[in-house]
TrEMBL record:
InterPro entries: Acyl_CoA_acyltransferase, GNAT_dom. It holds the Pfam family Acetyltransf_1. One of its GO terms (molecular function) is acyltransferase activity, transferring groups other than amino-acyl groups. Residues 1-89 form the N-acetyltransferase domain. The lineage of its organism: Bacteria, Pseudomonadati, Pseudomonadota, Betaproteobacteria, Burkholderiales. Keywords: Transferase. This is GNAT family N-acetyltransferase. PROSITE patterns: GNAT. The keyword Cytoplasm does not apply.
Amino acid sequence: MYGLYAEGQLAGFIGADGNALALAALAPAYRGRGLAKYWWRQVIAELLAAGHDTVTAPVPAANAAALNLYATQGFTFRAPLEIYQRVVV
């Protein structure tokens, strides 16, 4: 688990399982400041330094902001990930 702190607050986190980034979130108050690009670069560099030759991250096809961020970090996309939800009442 990688945490991003800004202004003394936990601004976001990235969960990793080996070289697979499993979950990422950034608080809305910290979006649009360029923090995510810096943060992802640091996490990817740490994973590569740990001996991984690739890093993977699932992202829903509809999440344009995440797709753009990942593209700036050198990710390539293999297949769209569709997310289906069901609300149980």
